[in-house]
């Protein structure tokens, strides 16, 4: 549910292309001039391709929307059917690629602390968790996050039902608002 919250940029309880546009717009506003118009279009194209893959997995008849119920079903189904789910691995790789495309501003192949801070701003997560999360994710303690470190954290995030240190990749769960949690729970019940 938490990652659904992160992706649901407009907080309407449904994932749709408008959420992707909102995240890209936030990035443009947080780091003006960082991406050309062509790069913004490319990021949107890549994001929509991944979103379309989620739609296929959801088997939803809705017009380009994924509800929280469908989201939970996708993750649960793929974790129950195969310990090393192809979908979870694909989704983890896609998430890492997306995060590095967006936040590796200097294109050195790593996300440093300032770039990680941008991630929190763009995704609307609380800044109070950033130092702890960065330290936990930086497994080799070299001051930057590699694709391998991010992949391990994100794959663990989606394939583990237990709380682990890597579940801090997107902040701690208490950052969800009570109103939003209640909205999602109502849909799930």
Structure explained in plain terms:
The chain is mainly α. Helix content is 62%, strand content 4%. The chain has 9 helices and 4 strands; from the N terminus they run αβααβααβααβαα. The protein has a two-stranded antiparallel ribbon. A two-stranded antiparallel sheet has the order 3-4. Helix 3 (37-58) runs antiparallel to helix 5 (86-103) and helix 5 packs across helix 8. It starts with a helix and ends with a helix.
Gist of the model:
The chain is mainly α and 189 residues long. The protein has helices at 2-7, 17-30, 37-58, 68-81, 86-103, 113-123, 130-137, 147-159, 178-188; strands at 14-15, 66-67, 111-112, 144-145. A two-stranded antiparallel ribbon has the order 1-2. Strands 3-4 form a two-stranded antiparallel ribbon.
Percent helix, as a range, is 55-70%
The helix/strand series, from N terminus to C terminus, equals: HEHHEHHEHHEHH
Return residue spans where pLDDT drops below 50 for at least 5 consecutive residues. Answer: none
| Overall 3D shape | globular
With helices defined by DSSP (H or I, 4 residues minimum), what is the helix count? 9
Q: Which sequence of strands runs across the widest sheet?
A: 1-2
Separation of termini? 14 Å
Structural class, by secondary structure, is: mainly alpha
Q: Provide mean pLDDT, rounded.
A: 78
Rounded to an integer, what's the Rg over CA atoms? 16 Å
- Could you tell me the strand content as a percent range? under 5%
- Strand tally: 4
Largest sheet: 2 strands, antiparallel
């Amino acid at each position: 549910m938490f990652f659904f919250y992160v992706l649901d940029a407009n907080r309407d309880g449904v994932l749709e292309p408008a959420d992707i546009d909102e995240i890209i717009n936030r990035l443009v506003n947080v780091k003006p001039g960082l991406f050309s118009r062509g790069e913004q279009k490319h990021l949107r194209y890549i994001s929509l391709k991944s979103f379309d893959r989620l739609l296929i997995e959801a088997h939803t008849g809705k017009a380009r929307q994924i509800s929280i119920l469908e989201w939970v079903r996708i993750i649960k189904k793929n974790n129950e059917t195969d310990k090393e789910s192809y979908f979870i691995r694909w989704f983890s790789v896609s998430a890492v690629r997306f995060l590095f495309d967006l936040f590796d501003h200097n294109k050195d192949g790593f996300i440093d602390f300032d770039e990680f801070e941008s991630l929190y701003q763009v995704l609307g997560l609380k800044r109070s968790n950033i130092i702890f999360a960065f330290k936990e994710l930086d497994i080799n303690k070299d001051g930057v996050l590699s694709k391998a470190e991010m992949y391990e954290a994100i794959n663990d995030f989606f394939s583990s039902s237990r709380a682990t240190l890597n579940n801090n990749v997107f902040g701690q769960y208490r950052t969800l608002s009570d109103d939003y949690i209640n909205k999602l729970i109502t849909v799930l019940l």
